[in-house]
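Continuing the series of single-chain predictions for the mutant panel. This is the parent chain; the variants come on the following pages.
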Amino acid sequence: MTTYTARPIAPTVLKELRTSDDAGRPMAPLTDDEGGAPLRCCLRRSEPGERIALVSYAPLRRWAAETGAEPGAYDEQGPVFIHADDCPGPAPTNTYPFANAHRTVRRYSADGHILGGALVPAPNDEAFRNAFDDPTVALVHVRAVEYGCFLYEVRRG
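Parent structure:
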């Protein structure tokens, strides 16, 4: 049985984003007074008092640079919250992050083109199994429905 893993933004990428984000802007840290921001570095919600930053991130562009894909017009960038300082990454868990609301599971080909997507009540093994049943699917992005923001990536195996 295949296990699917939610992938946070990689530490090397986080280091780059903390200097200059994918839109070329310097990071502008802030103290989160309320908490609740979905952090893509450790795949949990922020707590009041944590130093975070909202940065522009292009997940498909970064994946394409690793794989040689040419996503063309599908190369999106958008806002993501990260810790303003180094963080240890996600804690081990048997659940998927940010599963408290409907999510979109968006499928991409090895070329980086969108193959479709599905609205799911919450990210789960069945949603990922359904996505990867198509052998042309190379990776999946889980996105928030309300804003369309990238939450995390899932790859085969």
